[in-house]
Amino acid sequence: MAQERIRVAVIGIGNCFSSLYQGFEYYRNSAGEHIPGVMHSDIGGYRAGDIEIVAAFDVDPRKVGRRVGEAIFSAPNCARVFQPEVPDGPVVQMGPVLDGVSDHMLQQPEEIGFRVADAAPVDVVRVLRESRADILLNYLPVGSQEATEYYAQCAIDAGVAFLNCIPVFIASNPVWEQKFIDAGLPLIGDDMRSQVGASVLSQVLQELAFDRGAEVEFHQQINIGGNTDFNNMMVQTRLESKKKSKENVIRSQNDIRNIPVPKDSLFAGPSTFIPYLRDNKVAYLNLRLKGFGGAPITMDVKLSVQDSENSAGVVIDAIRYLKVARELGVVGALRGPSAWTQKTPPEQMMYADAKFECEALARRELTSSVRRQVRGAEDATAS
């Protein structure tokens, strides 16, 4: 069993964090090898209930100054409430705004938009050090390039591992990864996959087609939803990295097999914002294949999920992978856990390969690829 709790600081007290924080309490006393809703009950001796939030940052006046346990239920959050009784947690502190809030979200009605508190931002590095955080979890809105880079640097300066759950490329950027390696820190990113979501479904369906000898001529994934994530992504300039990240999942299956991607043969990304849906995300997948003798094969799939809860189980695992990796002295972007939990990892992997890497780390075993990351840290220290 784990000897200590995993201390996590979080950026962005939105829907995803609301579901995650409720999940900590919901699963706190869960025992046994198989727990419904959780992919891995035990990772390196740590269970879901071993995670503790020690610091939180936001910019909205409905969140800043309140305890986390109250802030997660404040507008514009609309995630389903499945665990109403949660710990109070730390007070949400004011972070820098930078590019974290778009003009579009400021112009939306209060119940579905963002507002900015009239408060000075705190010294994030100081808060991270004083809270003794192990991991900094990034839940900023899509398109927050400058803000994400700011917080990534804060994590490095404070000596904290980084979990990047949005499509700003940090773990998959060699320059940023090297900064974490130089600091002796692990990270996971970029852009979290859902537990049973459109991206992983696209991946396994395309893997199935390739493995059965079919040619993928067209692959489309359209997503609609009603939460603030979809509202924020109505701004096309903020959507660019998200669309690229979702298409990376599909494109990577071709890249791994050295199969060219035909022009205009894939599309993946958010389509529109429908407030009525609230935190319900609906994905429509269409795959058109060429089988034996050129025979046409068509797959149409509709997936309906609670968006924020669907991501929470993945993040609970990613947090524990980072903690174990840090205890084992692994530095840089974790290849297997990033490929398993994120859409744009530093190295795309087949489904089974990413799962193998994660299960090995969960047993505190170092695969050959992970062992090289540990050896690199030792070499750097010796020099």
Topology of this structure?
Blueprint lengths: L5 E6 L3 H12 L24 E8 L9 H4 L20 E3 L8 H5 L16 H8 L3 E4 L6 H14 L2 E4 L9 H9 L3 E3 L9 H14 L3 E11 L2 H5 L3 H22 L8 E8 L6 E11 L5 E11 H21 L4 E2 L1 H7 L9 H12 L5 H15 L1
Parallel strand pairs: 1-2, 1-4, 2-3, 4-5, 5-6, 6-11, 7-8
Antiparallel strand pairs: 7-9, 9-10
Helix pairs in contact: 1-10, 4-5, 7-9, 11-12
Task: Summarize the structure in words.
The strands form two sheets. This protein has a seven-stranded parallel β-sheet, with helices on both faces. Strands 8-7-9-10 form a four-stranded mixed β-sheet. The protein has 383 residues and is α/β, with parallel strands linked by helices. It is built from 13 helices and eleven strands. The mean pLDDT is 93. It is globular and about 65 Å long.
What descriptors fit this protein?
383 residues; alpha/beta; Rossmann fold; Dihydrodipicolinate Reductase, domain 2; 2 domains; 7-stranded parallel sheet; 4-stranded mixed sheet; 13 helices; 11 strands
Name of the CATH architecture of the largest domain: 3-Layer(aba) Sandwich
User: Can you count the beta strands?
Assistant: 11
CATH hierarchy class name of the largest domain: Alpha Beta
For this structure, the CATH topology of the largest domain is: Rossmann fold
Q: Biggest sheet, open or closed, and with what strands and sense?
A: 7 strands, parallel
Percent of sequence in beta strands: 15-25%
Helix content: 25-40%
Order of strands in the sheet with most strands: 3-2-1-4-5-6-11
How are helices and strands ordered from N to C? EHEHEHHEHEHEHEHHEEEHEHHH
